[in-house]
Amino acid sequence: MLTADDKKLIQQVCEKSSGHMEEFGAEALERMFITFPQTKTYFPHFDLQHGSDQIRGHGKKVATALANAAKNLDNLSQALSELSNLHAYNLRVDPPCFALQLLSQCFQVVLAVHLGKDYTPEVHSAFDKFLSAVASVLAEKYR
Amino acid sequence: RLLIVYPWTQRFFANFGNLSSPTAIIGNPKVRAHGKKVLTSFGEAVKNLDNIKATYSKLSELHCEKLHVDPENFRLLGDILIIVLASHFARDFTPACQFAWQKLVGVVAHALARKYH
């Protein structure tokens, strides 16, 4: 459950990163494809080489969605409703939540790389909870 | 970080004293000492990369028979270690580096779970 302090920390991180959305999103995806090759199975139609336009574009999409979620922490279900439908009915990233956990890990690595000491245990905890909550909502409609 | 981000893991450290807040956990000498123990053990794995299963055989029995730790927790700790490394090494913790380390923590977790019965 996200406490008031968690919410503050999450929003602070998102504000700090607001100029780097595309970059962070792309890096998280790239790390995910390299570290967890099984995730590439969901993108057979993508050029997955380092720096590809598709990875950059998709990274920006993902990061923007997360930033939007961070602005709607009290209403994640509604804010992510469209994306939830998409992931459940069209994309069917399977098993529910598992691949999203891998992306969550990579996103946190990116934040840790860029924020260094500022990715404190408290921030880490808040963000881990946030990404878990997002993954939960995205998996809500799987069955 | 394990005790802060996944607070239920505190169940294994009932005799560690004050774990009531992130500040308490970060300042707790028993936590530091245990962290050193665990990382030193990881160091052993790195020195014995061709024989990790054997390296962790006794520890696996210990974690099952005496400590009663659900192996899922090894995965959680592994992921946390990766994030700690990322925060210290920043750009030097390249995607290729992360790949190698994620595999390592996976292998260590597997070795620690191997002797469970």
TrEMBL record, chain A:
Gene3D superfamilies: Globins (1.10.490.10). Residues 1-143 form the Globin domain. Keywords: Heme, Iron, Metal-binding, Oxygen transport, Transport. One of its GO terms (molecular function) is peroxidase activity. SUPFAM superfamilies: Globin-like (SSF46458). CDD domains: Hb-alpha-like (cd08927). It comes from the Eukaryota. InterPro entries: Globin (IPR000971), Globin-like_sf (IPR009050), Globin/Proto (IPR012292), Hemoglobin_a-typ (IPR002338), Hemoglobin_oxygen_transport (IPR050056). The keyword Metal-binding applies. The keyword Chaperone does not apply. Heterotetramer of two alpha-D chains and two beta chains. PANTHER family: HEMOGLOBIN FAMILY MEMBER, HEMOGLOBIN SUBUNIT ZETA. Involved in oxygen transport from the lung to the various peripheral tissues. Belongs to the globin family. This is HBA2 protein. It comes from Probosciger aterrimus (Palm cockatoo). The gene is Hba2.
From TrEMBL, chain B:
The keyword Flavoprotein does not apply. CDD domains: Hb-beta-like (cd08925). Residues 1-117 form the Globin domain. GO terms for cellular component: blood microparticle; haptoglobin-hemoglobin complex; hemoglobin complex. It comes from the Eukaryota. It holds the Pfam family Globin. Keywords: Heme, Iron, Metal-binding, Oxygen transport, Transport. Belongs to the globin family. Heterotetramer of two alpha chains and two beta chains. This is Hemoglobin subunit beta. The lineage of its organism: Eukaryota, Metazoa, Chordata, Craniata, Vertebrata.
